[in-house]
Structure formats: structure tokens, C-alpha cells
UniProtKB/TrEMBL annotation:
<keyword id="KW-1133">Transmembrane helix</keyword>
<dbReference type="GO" id="GO:0015628">
    <property type="term" value="P:protein secretion by the type II secretion system"/>
</dbReference>
<keyword id="KW-0472">Membrane</keyword>
<dbReference type="Pfam" id="PF12836">
    <property type="entry name" value="HHH_3"/>
</dbReference>
<dbReference type="GO" id="GO:0015627">
    <property type="term" value="C:type II protein secretion system complex"/>
</dbReference>
<dbReference type="InterPro" id="IPR051675">
    <property type="entry name" value="Endo/Exo/Phosphatase_dom_1"/>
</dbReference>
<keyword id="KW-0812">Transmembrane</keyword>
<protein>
    <submittedName>
        <fullName>DNA uptake protein ComE</fullName>
    </submittedName>
</protein>
<dbReference type="InterPro" id="IPR010994">
    <property type="entry name" value="RuvA_2-like"/>
</dbReference>
<feature type="transmembrane region" description="Helical">
    <location>
        <begin position="20"/>
        <end position="38"/>
    </location>
</feature>
Length: 299
């Protein structure tokens, strides 16, 4: 084969042979020049411009290289995603085939959602290897991953069962008993007991409405839970014979009211019944029924 090329070489003229020789020589020279330049260009530039290649320059080069490495790693990072919203492009990037993507899109067109990795594989028919690689990045809504326990159905239209209230005696009720009533806390329950101790027990349940601070609604609620079953023994005072000092000790009366009672009695005669007390100025009319329980109107 080489003999054929050698024979053809002799058919060239002398000037063609010379030109071919110089062409080969130029090609070899260029190759040698490029090789030499690539090996000595860096060192020659450093020798020419030593001020450019400082420690600051190399520090910047290292910083740029590190940024490039971080950028490349970030580009390859997979963030958690909801597989229900994989698009054609996203599926292609994740290595899904066209058929697998089409199956998912067709499933989603029916307004259905994938709720687990196994269900995703059943719909798309992806391989086990693909599922093992990308399913750790699946992110489903909280109501899918952490479903709330089902609440028992409550029929609010059903009439509530009325539990009868059995009233207890107000004179034996404890603070815990009193606090079972709505809006009666430790403060008011303590006030009720102190008021009871002050009078030696309640003779009427109506006395609760005169305790300061308790609203009418709460008092009515107290009437449902309590009543006077065991009333304290009261020694009734004869209103027509009692002195001012004796009358002022009666619950809800004071010195000034007692003085007016004695004054009215001395000027108008004995009291026949409790209605006679209504003629006294500034008498606590709203408490007359309770005050009369402590009085006797006979001569």
C-alpha cells in the first residue's frame, strides 16, 4: 500500500514537492508552538505581572470555585413536592416516561387525588426503583398524613333529656354545692356562707337576693337548687314591747329604723300586723316579709 503512495509521489513536479514539504513543516511548527505556549503561558504571565497573582487573587478564585460547586449541588437538589401536581416537564426531569405521565394526568382529570406512594405507583405503573428513589420526597397534605379522628355524630335536633333538680337545704350547703350553680364561684359562695353565719341561718330563701353583687338571674338559679328545709329556731321578739337596742339586732334593721319603730308605736299605739310597719318612713319595705319572721305582733 505504501509503495503505491510512494510511486504517486514521484508524479508530482519539483515545485509541488517543495510546497508539500513546506506545508508539512508549517503544520509541525504550529503544533510545537501551541504545545510550548500552553505549557509556559501561565508561568510567563505570572513572571510578567507578578502583582496580579497575589494571595487575594487566589482567595477569590477559591471563592468562585466554591460558589460554582454550591450552585451545581443546589441545581441537583430535590425539594419535597406533591406528586398530584407533576407536570409534563417535571415528570420528564424526574425520569418518568410519557406513558406514566399521561396515566397520572388522566387520573387527575377525573378530579381524583393520589394519597400515598403505593397508590401513585398503582396509577402510573412506575418501577419500584423509581418509587424508592423519589417517594421520600412526596409531600401530601396534613389531612392525608395525619387524619383527624372521626367525631361521633350528635343530633342537635334531638330534645335534651331533662334531669330533674333536687333542691337541697341552703343552711347545710357547702361552698362546693353553691359553686355548682352557674356564675357562682369561690368569692360569691364564700359571701353566701358568711351571710348565713351572720344571721345564724336563713329563715327564707328570699334572703339570697339581698346579698350584694349577685344578679337577679343568678338568684333565680339559686332558687332552683336550694330552699330552706331546716330553718333555724328563731325566738320572735314582741314588736310592741321590744326596746330600740333589741329591735336593732334583728336582721336588716339598724338603730335608726328601730328608733322610728318605737317612736311610731308610742305615738300611734301597738302594731297589729306587719302592714303597720309600712307607715314608718325609710322602713326597708322590700325586706318586710323577712323581718316579720323575727317579730311577734301580739300584746
Amino acid at each position: 500500500m505504501f509503495s503505491n503512495y510512494r510511486k504517486k509521489f514521484y508524479y508530482y513536479t519539483k515545485s509541488q514537492k517543495r510546497g508539500l514539504f513546506f506545508l508539512i513543516l508549517i503544520v509541525i511548527s504550529v503544533q510545537l508552538l501551541v504545545y510550548y505556549y500552553s505549557r509556559h503561558s501561565d508561568s510567563s504571565i505570572r513572571d510578567r505581572y507578578p502583582s496580579l497573582f497575589t494571595d487575594e487573587y487566589y482567595a477569590r478564585v477559591r471563592m468562585i470555585d466554591s460558589i460554582r460547586a454550591i450552585t451545581q449541588s443546589t441545581r441537583d437538589t430535590i425539594y419535597p413536592f406533591n406528586p398530584n401536581f407533576i407536570t409534563d416537564y417535571r415528570g420528564f426531569i424526574l425520569g418518568m416516561s410519557t406513558a406514566e405521565i399521561d396515566r397520572l394526568l388522566a387520573f387527575r382529570k377525573e378530579n381524583k387525588y393520589v394519597n400515598s406512594a403505593k397508590e401513585f405507583q398503582r396509577i402510573t405503573l412506575v418501577s419500584d426503583e423509581w418509587l424508592a428513589q423519589y417517594s421520600p420526597y412526596f409531600k401530601f397534605p396534613d389531612w392525608v398524613t395525619n387524619p383527624k379522628p372521626k367525631q361521633e355524630y350528635i343530633d342537635y335536633n334531638k330534645p335534651k333529656e331533662v334531669v330533674p333538680i333536687v333542691p337541697i337545704c341552703i343552711n347545710s350547703a357547702t361552698q362546693d354545692d353553691l359553686q355548682k350553680v352557674r356564675d357562682i364561684g369561690p368569692y360569691y359562695s364564700e359571701r353566701i356562707i358568711k351571710e348565713r353565719e351572720k344571721y345564724g341561718g336563713f329563715v327564707s330563701i328570699q334572703q339570697l337576693k339581698f346579698i350584694y353583687g349577685i344578679s337577679e338571674e343568678v338568684v333565680n338559679e339559686l332558687y332552683r337548687y336550694f330552699k330552706v328545709i331546716n330553718a333555724p329556731s328563731v325566738v320572735q321578739l314582741n314588736v310592741n314591747e321590744a326596746s330600740i337596742n333589741q329591735l336593732k339586732e334583728i336582721p336588716y334593721m339598724n338603730y335608726y329604723i328601730a328608733r322610728e319603730v318605737v317612736k311610731h308605736r308610742s305615738m300611734n299605739g301597738d302594731f297589729v300586723n306587719k302592714e303597720g310597719l309600712l307607715q314608718i318612713e325609710k322602713f326597708p319595705i322590700d325586706k318586710i316579709d323577712i323581718i316579720s319572721l323575727y317579730l311577734r305582733f301580739t300584746n
